[in-house]
Amino acid sequence: MEVIPAIDLLEGRCVRLYQGDYARSEVFDENPVAVARQWVEQGATRLHLVDLDGAKAGHPVNQQAIEAIVRAVDVPVQVGGGLRDRSSVAGLLGLGVQRIILGTVAVEQPDLVAQLCEGFPQQIVVGIDARNGKVATRGWLETSAVEAVPLAQQMSQFGVAAIIYTDIYRDGTLQGPNREALRELAQAISIPVIASGGVSSVTDLLNLLPLESLGVSGAIVGRALYTGDLSLREAIRAVGNGRWQDVPPDLGSSAFA
User: Fold this and answer.
1) Which of 20, 54, 96, 119 has its CB 3.0 to 4.6 Å from that of 140, i.e. a possible disulfide?
2) Contact 247, 233 (CB under 8 A)
3) What is the predicted pLDDT for the residue at 256?
4) Chain centroid to CA 25: how far?
5) 41 lies in a domain?
6) Higher confidence at residue 250 or residue 208?
7) Percentage, residues of the chain above pLDDT 90
8) 254 part of a folded domain
9) What is the mean pLDDT of residues 64-89?
10) Are 8 and 218 in contact (CB under 8 A)?
11) Averaged over 80-97, what is the pLDDT?
């Protein structure tokens, strides 16, 4: 299972929100490039970037920071937030981003998702962010009537590379991912599912491993890494996928000391 560190960008800084609330943001680092390098040095095989300003504005805003991160690391980068037209998608791919994450357009313009999957095969991922099973849109500021599982099935038929599922009520809370929702989603589609929201410990990741055979192929981790509740090195060692062989153990960790 792939452990994917999240870097949320707000006004060019690395922040974390609580349950998607922009009013409850916490700045963790003024230099997201340094953060990106840190996660790669600790064994990350992929980085997950979210343009929070873009998600609210409806178009990319933090391109400068995104490009700087892509240039600074040697692992694939996936980006989401405010990507609602072909030119925005093509622009970020042109900067070297490997995969694009679409959210709002999956609900509001599903035909566009189908077109983008055809134009950029295996580079389109759909993020399904849900409150009580209903899909949220526009930077989580609105909740639609669309249900998560049928939407995932439709997107799978279009040829998206993966689904990222976030339980908004778990995001930034360190309460653990919603395993039942992930199980239901993974059983309903045949493409990979990436868990997001609430991962707080190695135990949370280990609890996801039984879902790997169903298609849950990775987990995005955010706040727990920034608060120190979770060591990326430990997480990668625990679930067995990463570049940890090249990384010295975390000597400050009781689990691997």
Assistant:
1) 20
2) yes
3) 25
4) 17
5) yes
6) 208
7) 67
8) no
9) 96
10) no
11) 96
Q: Which two tokens stand for residue 136?
A: 């949220």
Backbone angles phi, psi at 222, to 5 degrees: -125, -95
User: Distance between CA 5 and CA 235 in Å, rounded?
Assistant: 11
Residue 36 within a domain: yes
Cβ atoms 193, 165 nearer than 8 A: yes
Within a domain: 233? yes
User: Domain containing 221: what range?
Assistant: 2-246
Q: CA-CA distance, 17 to 32, in Å (whole number)?
A: 15
The residue-averaged pLDDT of 105-117 equals 95
Q: What is the mean pLDDT of residues 77-83?
A: 95
Arithmetic mean of pLDDT over the chain: 87
Longest dimension (CA), the chain: 52
> Distance of CA 58 to CAs 32, 42, 114, 123, 152, Å?
22, 33, 19, 20, 22
Q: Which residues are identified as catalytic?
A: 8, 129
- Tell me, what amino acid is at 25? S
**Total structural domains within the chain:** 1
Distance CA 223, CA 226 (A): 5
